[in-house]
Design a protein that fits this description.
single chain, mainly alpha, elongated
C-alpha cells in the first residue's frame, strides 16, 4: 500500500482564495438548508397523507427541484475542500510530481465541465422562461430551479481552477529547489 499524496492546502492564503472559500461555504450552507426544508416538507407530507389524507401538493416536484439545487450548491465546497473521491489505483507507481500534474489536468477538465454546465443551465433557463413551462401539479415556473444552478457551477469551476493552481504551485517550488 502506498502513502497518500500530500495535498496542498485546500485554499490559497490569498484574499481571493479566502473569498472563494467563503462563497463556496455560504452556498453549501444554503444547499444544506434546502435539504433541511426538503426533509421537513417530506415528513409533513407523509404525516399529512397518513393522518389527514391530504399530502402536500407538488411534494414530488419540489423534492426533485430542491435536490438538484442543493446538490449543485454543495459541489463548489466539496471541490474547494478536495472532498471528491480520488481513484489512484493506476497511479500508485507514479512519483508525486506526476500525480500533481495528473490532478491538475483532472481539475482543469472538471473546471471546463463546470463552466459548460453553467452555460447550458443559462441557456436552459432562458428557454424555459420563454416557453413559460411550469410544473404539472403546482404550476411553478420550471426556470426558477435553474437560477441557483448557474452561480453554483461557475463557483464550482472557479474552485476547480484554484485546485489547478495549487497542484502546479508545488512543482514550481520543486524546480526552484532543484536548480
Amino acid at each position: 500500500m502506498s502513502e497518500p499524496l500530500p495535498r496542498p492546502d485546500a485554499v490559497a492564503s490569498s484574499a481571493w482564495g479566502k473569498a472563494l472559500e467563503q462563497a463556496c461555504a455560504f452556498l453549501a450552507v444554503l444547499g444544506g438548508l434546502l435539504f433541511l426544508c426538503e426533509a421537513l416538507m417530506s415528513v409533513a407530507s407523509v404525516l399529512g397523507r397518513i393522518f389527514l389524507s391530504t399530502p402536500i401538493s407538488g411534494d414530488y416536484e419540489l423534492v426533485q427541484l430542491m435536490s438538484a439545487m442543493g446538490i449543485a450548491m454543495c459541489l463548489p465546497y466539496c471541490q474547494i475542500k478536495r472532498g471528491h473521491v480520488f481513484v489512484d489505483f493506476f497511479t500508485l507507481w507514479a512519483p508525486a510530481p506526476v500525480k500533481r500534474y495528473m490532478d491538475a489536468f483532472a481539475s482543469l477538465v472538471l473546471a471546463g465541465c463546470a463552466f459548460l454546465l453553467a452555460w447550458r443551465c443559462w441557456e436552459g433557463m432562458v428557454e424555459m422562461h420563454e416557453y413559460g413551462e411550469t410544473t404539472m401539479v403546482i404550476s411553478m415556473p420550471v426556470w426558477w430551479g435553474y437560477v441557483p444552478l448557474m452561480p453554483s457551477f461557475v463557483l464550482f469551476g472557479l474552485a476547480a481552477l484554484m485546485a489547478v493552481v495549487q497542484d502546479l504551485r508545488p512543482l514550481n517550488n520543486e524546480r526552484e529547489v532543484q536548480a
